[in-house]
Amino acid sequence: MAAEAFLLLACFMAVLLLVAKPLGDLMTSMALDRALPGTKRIEQGMWRLCGIQDDEMNWRQYLVAILLFNLLGMVLLFLMLLWQDLLPLNPQGLPGLSWHLALNTAISFVTNTNWQSYAGESTMSYFSQMVGLAVQNFLSAASGMAVLFALMRGFSRHTSSSLGNAWRDVTRVTLFVLLPLSLLMALFLVSQGAIQNVSPYTTLTTLEGVQQTLPMGPVASQEAIKMLGTNGGGFFNANSAHPFENPTALSNFIQMLAIFAIPAALCFTFGNVVRDRRQGRTLLWAMSIMFIVAAALVMIAEVNGNPHLLSFGGDSALNWEGKEARFGILNSSLFAVITTAASCGAVNAMHDSFTALGGMVPMWLIQLGEVVFGGVGSGLYGMLMNVLLAVFIAGLMIGRTPEYLGKKIGVPEMKMAAIYILITPSLVLLGTALAMMTDAGRAGMLNTGPHGFSEVLYAVSSAANNNGSAFAGLSANTPFWNLLLAAAMLLGRFAPFVPLLAMAGYLAARKTQPASPGTLPTHGALFVGLIIGTVLLIGALTFIPALALGPVIEHLQLLAGH
After folding, report:
1. Average pLDDT, stretch 405-422?
2. Alpha-carbon distance 133 to 418, whole Å?
3. Gap between the Cα atoms of 223 and 531, Å rounded
4. Of 13, 91, 307, 538, which one is least surrounded by beta carbons within 10 A?
């Protein structure tokens, strides 16, 4: 089993790096606010047609543009879901959603969270899936990448007041990155057996003589952008454990690869933009080390399973509960780590059925801010905030002014970094406390004790960090939970944009200083260790007390035989 686990991880990382390097180089032109080769005339026609000016934006204008764009998308999606029964492509005659579920779902998909308090096949029409949810899968991913590009320009420019144009960035990412890749992946999924149609649901008679309704739908197209955009919302309630969404072992591997492809590629893009590829490789090393260790821990926990079942012999000790038998324990464990290290939320196994420690690692990966590769755009800009904190800490230790990529890190930048780091932990801890303190919050819990607390903590962590996966065991389709999680998703996604873009504006305005003998090298093994230490230290100080009340106690109870 150990050799199989090593081979699986090694193959995954090797293929990921082979894909990420050329993709990262391709996106460099976009990050530098240039047209891709051969697309300049196409772009000029689009800019004229849409009325997009050549003018660049300062950080405040960029922020307003991104927020207004996403707010408009949220309102349109909310109305679409509310009046779903009046719209076409609804062969099953599914009714409109309740106002609180429609609001929760609209915010969920606009914020790249894709938390689902519903079963897709019995709730969403084809029109809602294609025109509503799938469109926002593209636009929310593009918004995250646009904000990252603005931050990259903040590091690469000097004495500048502008960060590019938000409309150009969102359009380029959507049309020239997400759309072509999604088309290729959708065709691949169809070749593997994923369905893609707009047919009415089919009624079958099983071998036992029982009638069963088989859902249909445009699944492959939704799956492609769900993975590539680190969105995660499944067409079916079973998500990527459903054979229509994830038909084969090969499709399972490619889905895992697609989740990390763009986040890993953006590390190479960053190195190209700041004209020092070592910086991008340093970030990639830090992410990869944390990811591999997390994957190994979950695999060990799930393979070891429940020690009290060892006496039964064979595979009885392995924790097969909640796993997809087609893929096995190792693939299910790896998928869980990938989807929570990235802000994806797609699942091919039930995280609620993992062992206490096997479930704690994915939860902690979410709580770290999903900086271990993370979401498209959001993972790298979150990691860069941790890098600035690491540089600041190192500057304190050696008695020098903190400096990164030739930019002095002053008081305004550290204030923005501190605000960024505090936003999501505050939402997670306050939201969990509110849920546990109120009758409406506790009413949704199907389990008591530490496991029930873990389910609540995981749900709020997933919402605030825009992941979207669930521990399950929580009846979340109630006004209280829909509104609580909607607020966490909304603030967790858009509140960090303020310090991020302010930081980008401050950095762009600063001069670039030449390196001196006292400059701290921000590449190499020492700095990789410093980044990892900073990320883990912040996560430990923030969340270990809460984790001690949930999965840690549950693990100790398991060892004690309870």
Report:
1. 91
2. 33
3. 33
4. 307
Distances (CA, A) of 552 to 154, 411, 488, 511, 533: 41, 38, 25, 48, 22
Helix and strand element counts for the chain (H, E): 22, 4
* DSSP secondary structure of 374-425: -STTHHHHHHHHHHHHHHHHHHHHHTS--EETTEE--HHHHHHHHHHHHHHH
Q: Three-state SS for 298?
A: helix
Nearest CA-CA partner of 269 in 152, 151, 150: 152
Three-class DSSP category at 495: coil
In DSSP notation, 129-185 reads IIIIIIHHHHHHHHHHHHHHHHHHHHHH--S------HHHHHHHHIIIIIHHHHHHH
User: Strand, coil or helix: what is 81?
Assistant: helix
Q: Are 143 and 170 in contact (CB under 8 A)?
A: yes
CA distance 97 to 347: 24
Phi, psi of 211 (to 5 degrees): -80, 135
Which residue is it, tokens 């302010």?
502
213 three-state secondary structure: strand
- C-alpha to C-alpha distance for 158 and 461, rounded to whole angstroms: 37
Top mean pLDDT of 81-90, 320-329, 345-354 is at 81-90
Token look-up 């990412």 returns 173
Residues in the chain: 562
Nearest to 263 by CA among 239, 235, 231: 231
The answer for residues whose C-beta is within 8 angstroms of residue 34's C-beta and 6 or more apart is none
Structure tokens at 259: 């989740």
Are 322 and 239 a contacting pair, CB within 8 Å? no
Does this model's pTM top 0.85? My answer is yes
Q: What is the mean pLDDT of residues 25-38?
A: 90
The pLDDT tens digits for 492-542 are 999 999 999 999 999 999 988 887 777 788 888 999 999 999 999 888 788
User: Given the DSSP bridges, would you call strands 211-214 and 407-408 parallel, antiparallel or unpaired?
Assistant: unpaired
Which of 21-30, 336-345, 433-442, 467-476 has the lowest average pLDDT?
467-476
Report residue 318's pLDDT band, with 50, 70 and 90 as the boundaries.
Answer: low
What is the C-alpha to C-alpha distance for residues 185 and 220, in angstroms, rounded to an integer? Answer: 8
Give the position of tokens 């090298």.
Answer: 521
Q: Residues 89, 198: contact at Cβ < 8 Å?
A: yes
Read off the pLDDT band of 36 (50, 70, 90): confident
Q: How far apart are CA 227 and CA 8, in angstroms?
A: 19
The string of pLDDT tens digits covering residues 375-396 is 999 999 999 999 999 999 888 8
